[in-house]
Amino acid sequence: MLSWAIGFLVIAVVAAAFGFYGLADVSVYAAKIIFIVFLVLGILSFLGSIFLRKK
What is the pLDDT of residues 25-41, one digit of tens each? Predict the structure, then answer.
């Protein structure tokens, strides 16, 4: 999922370099959303592994 966010960020940079600012805006927005989802799932996974650890 992190690779998707980086991919969208690269697409945004390339689109902005060629003047496609609408595509760049959409790509940056998608990269932000995917990165936030990545962070939330990572934190939930970390907390789940701490609290649900078998003793």
Answer: 999 999 999 999 999 99
pTM of the model: 0.80
Residue 54 burial class via C-beta count within 10 angstroms: exposed 0-12, middle 13-18, buried 19 and up: exposed
Number of neighbouring beta carbons within 10 Å of residue 7: 14
CA 50, chain centre distance (Å): 24
Distance separating alpha carbons of residues 53 and 20, to the nearest angstrom: 49
- Non-local CB neighbours of 40 within 8 Å, separated by 6+ positions: none
